[in-house]
Amino acid sequence: MLATPRIRGSQRGTRVARDGVNAQPSLAVPAMGRLSGKSVVITGAASGIGAATAELFASEGANLVLGDLNEAGGEATAERCRAISARAVFLRTDVAEEDDVAKLLDRAVSEYGQLDVVFNNAGLGGAVGPFEETRREDWDRTMAVLLSGVFFGIKHAVRHMKDRGGSIISTSSVAGLRAGAGPIAYSVAKAGVAHLSRVVALEVAAQQIRVNAICPGGINTPIISTRVPGGPEVAGELLKQLQPLPMTGQPLHIAHAALFLASDESAFVTGQALVIDGGFTLPGMRFTPPDQRPAIDTTFAGPSFE
Ligand SMILES: NC(=O)c1ccc[n+]([C@@H]2O[C@H](COP(=O)([O-])OP(=O)(O)OC[C@H]3O[C@@H](n4cnc5c(N)ncnc54)[C@H](O)[C@@H]3O)[C@@H](O)[C@H]2O)c1
User: Fold this and answer.
1) How does the average pLDDT of the chain come out, rounded?
2) Strands ordered across the beta sheet of 209-216
3) Residue 186 catalytic?
4) For residue 18, is it within any domain?
5) How many other β-carbons are positioned within 10 Å of the β-carbon of residue 213?
6) pLDDT score at 300
7) CATH number reported for the structural domain that contains residue 222 in this entry
8) Looking at residue 291, what is its pLDDT?
9) Looking at the predicted structure, is the pLDDT value of residue 9 above 50?
10) Which residues line ligand 1 (CB under 6 A)?
11) Minimal-distance CA residue to ligand 1 atom 2
């Protein structure tokens, strides 16, 4: 498995130059206290995007409450955050259970006195295979984790934020925007996450609560790499070819988007589904493949009658 890039003190303030077109640009950027004193809840924090976001937020001064089904992974993330001098606690949480989510968010208030940011990020692949063979229980579990889990997270975040504002971020997917980018139940749930964010954003805007979604493209995390024979290295090579930008999507690419939406830098942003996909969703219908385009002998295409 590719290690999640770590933010260490020695990396802060450093930008490493690219050494070629296919090299990954450095993800190390200076820590600037952009979440200083903010109380933040992150679900799905044991692994992948959630773990990378927890560490990035820790380096930016956040106080963290982390939730996940995976206790060992969640405790390990909390430990790494504390090593960056952040305050961080972990709670075993099943986001499909409303009580679990409510308790997770309540913990932020009892621990730090307030709740400023919630990142609803926990996820799984869910029901896969031919649609007509999808079992009811697999469909229901997919919706329970991916869509109801976000519903619970947004609902209880609003309960705590309505008097002082806040930022709610949820992980959708390019699969929620484009047919064929993911399994059917997963894609439908992720489309729901983006739209839930838009409609709730309207309802709570007057209370200074911002609600946004992030739509990642292919990111090399265990949700993908555990399903690819050969693991993270092979997955990384496959993902590199998925989109126009010739690089592998990394958890920190998404963590940086979450940081923007969590920080006051995005104070005027709400109801958006922010696409972070290396250009994956850019290609639309093509009249001709790029290598078969007709040669054009001028630099300007004027009116067709000329
Ligand atoms: N990796 C990608 O290419 C990609 C693309 C688009 C969207 N996403 C979304 O990003 C989010 C994070 O996924 P990731 O890529 O980091 O994968 P990941 O598997 O590394 O992390 C997902 C985490 O969610 C946790 N989780 C699963 N079910 C849970 C539940 N019921 N309650 C609490 N925690 C639960 C897992 O234990 C895991 O730690 C997911 O919502 C996923 O759908 C991922």
Assistant:
1) 91
2) 88-92, 63-68, 39-43, 117-120, 166-171, 209-216, 273-276
3) yes
4) no
5) 27
6) 85
7) 3.40.50.720
8) 66
9) no
10) 43-44, 46-50, 68-70, 73, 93-96, 121-124, 145, 171, 173, 216, 218-219, 221-224
11) 219
Tell me if 299 is assigned to some domain.
Answer: no
* Percentage of the residues of the chain whose pLDDT score is greater than 90: 82
Tell whether the torsion through CA atoms of 203, 205, 207 and 209 is positive or negative.
positive
**Residue numbers of the domain that contains 38:** 33-129+144-279
Minimal CA–CA distance to 124: which of 230, 234, 222, 52?
222
Give me the number of domains the chain comprises: 1
The CA distances from residue 240 to 49, 159, 221, 277, in Å, are 17, 41, 13, 11
pLDDT digits (tens, 9 = 90+) for 104-162: 999 999 999 999 999 999 999 999 999 999 999 999 999 999 999 999 999 999 999 99
Measure 123 CA to ligand 1 centroid, in angstroms: 3
Residue 52 lies in a domain: yes
Q: pLDDT tens, 221-274?
A: 999 999 999 999 999 999 999 999 999 999 999 999 999 999 999 999 999 999
Whole-prediction pTM: 0.91
Please identify, by atom number, the ligand 1 atom nearest to the C-alpha of residue 216.
Answer: 6
- 121, 186, 240, 272: which is the annotated catalytic residue? 186
Token output for 117: 């940011």
Query: What is the 166 CA–ligand 1 centroid distance (Å)?
Result: 23
**296 falls within a domain:** no
Q: What is the structure's pLDDT at 306? A: 84
Of 172, 193, 151, 167, nearest in space to 276 by CA: 172
Report CA(45)–ligand 1 centroid distance (Å). Answer: 9
Residue 92, CB half-sphere, CA atoms under 13 Å: how many?
A: 4
